[in-house]
Specification:
This protein is mainly alpha-helical. It has five helices and two strands; from the N terminus they run E-H-E-H-H-H-H. The protein is elongated and about 55 Å long.
Length: 119
């Protein structure tokens, strides 16, 4: 059986290539090798650390920590369900590139709106 993997790497998007690449099963060992690169995340060897989406993801960690602190400041037995609902909002941040960016913006706006009612 022929296996095909369709990829659209961000670097190609930057270069104006708007179609996915169709790659055969020969790419599987390359992908396995790249998966081991997760060990490099956060180090100076992280090749993707400077991309806009990675910077947003790093900022998202601090934003979420701040969100939880704000929730805890006003937490009571009466609003624990609301706090859990707000704290779970980042679970909706998914997708790649533009889709993820849109989900981040939408989730943060939604969290701020719910926090106004919560606090």
């Amino acid at each position: 059986a022929n296996i095909f993997i369709y990829l659209h790497p961000p670097i190609l998007r930057l270069l104006g290539w708007n179609k996915k690449l169709k790659l055969g099963s020969w790419i599987l060992p390359v992908l396995q090798f790249l998966a081991k690169g997760k060990l490099l995340r956060g180090t100076f060897l992280d090749l993707f650390a400077k991309t806009e989406i990675r910077k947003m993801e790093i900022q998202l960690i601090g934003w979420y920590q701040d969100l939880v602190k704000r929730l805890l400041l006003h937490l009571t037995a009466n609003n624990i369900e609301d706090a859990l609902k707000i704290a779970a909002l980042p679970d909706h941040i998914r997708g790649y590139e533009e889709i993820k960016k849109q989900n981040i913006i939408k989730t943060q706006a939604q969290a701020e709106e719910l926090l106004k009612q919560y606090c």
